[in-house]
Write a structure and sequence with these properties.
binds S-adenosylmethionine; two-stranded antiparallel sheet; Rossmann fold; 20% strand; 2 domains; 9 helices; 262 residues
Length: 262
């Protein structure tokens, strides 16, 4: 049996036991859904949609492909995908949170599905690319999620994970922690009058601070059969993990499977 790798330990300041984590996260995003794009703009000064679109292009997204955007939230990555593909019907967004999906529906005309990364309701070998933007810290277990991602990707299909990583520089850590834990909660409270939005920012930093290191994420991807696994870092803390499902695989009986196996 494979070892369970939660992205971060139980954060008792927010929920008591592991089993309570997903319902806490669901409630948090439900409370903050209406303000999510507004908070995002304060965070990245409006560069977020362009960054997401360019990351998809860097990972190899091209017209004609089919993209699954896991943890689509308000649809910021999915919208970038629809722009690159030139057709919103070629992007499917999936998220467990009905509040976030309601916001996504206002901006996206393509299919939206309610569901979790750990149990994707799609057939195997269905998508050319799978993206997940800033949500890896919210899955229950990296092994289970990556196994699902590989299953639904076509042979040769590509995976793109965008994530905020704990900065290695102490000064940068201090700057980002202060921004997330003090400045943004204060700004969101005064500009939205909404407390869950401030709570979301505090939780955001704590999950970044306690998240498993990037090397573990890269290891778990490789262990789950992904190849060409890479991580690029922008501005010291924005990580782009890119990986591919092999074009051919060896089954338990030793036979070659996949598009190159003919
Ligand atoms: C920070 S938002 C990211 C939204 C979007 N991808 C973006 O780039 O802005 C995190 C999203 O992860 C979703 N989420 C939480 N638990 C999840 C799970 N187990 N599987 C998939 N998505 C999950 C939340 O509902 C939320 O919409």
């Amino acid at each position: 049996m494979t070892e369970s790798i939660p992205p971060h330990p139980v954060l008792e300041e927010y929920y008591r036991v592991k089993a309570d984590r997903q319902s806490f996260v669901d409630e948090l995003f439900d409370g903050a859904a209406r303000y999510y794009n507004h908070i995002g703009r304060m965070l990245d000064l409006g560069s977020g949609p362009m960054y997401r679109r360019q990351a998809l292009q860097r990972a190899g997204l091209k017209p004609g492909m089919r993209l699954l955007d896991v943890a689509t939230g308000t649809g910021l990555v999915a919208r970038g995908g629809a722009e690159v593909l030139g057709d919103p019907r070629r992007v499917i967004g999936i998220d467990p949170n009905s509040g976030m999906l309601r916001e996504a529906r206002m901006a996206l005309s393509g299919p939206l599905v309610r569901g979790r990364a750990e149990v994707l309701p799609f057939r195997s070998d269905s998508f050319d690319m799978l993206s997940m933007g800033f949500a890896l810290r919210h899955v229950e277990d990296l092994e289970i999620a990556f196994d699902e991602y590989r299953r639904v990707l076509k042979p040769g299909g590509r995976l793109l994970l965008l994530e905020v990583s704990r900065p290695t520089s102490r000064i940068m850590r201090w700057v980002i922690r202060t921004h997330f834990q003090r400045v943004l909660p204060w700004l969101t409270r005064i500009s939205t009058g909404n407390d869950p939005a401030g709570l979301l920012m505090r939780y955001y930093w704590d999950t970044i601070d306690r998240c498993v290191p990037p090397e573990t994420i890269l290891d778990v991807l490789r262990r789950n059969g992904f190849v060409d696994v890479t991580r690029r870092v922008y501005v010291g803390f924005l990580s782009e993990y890119v990986a591919a499902k092999p074009r051919r695989s060896v089954s338990a009986d030793g036979e070659m499977r996949g598009i190159d196996a003919a």
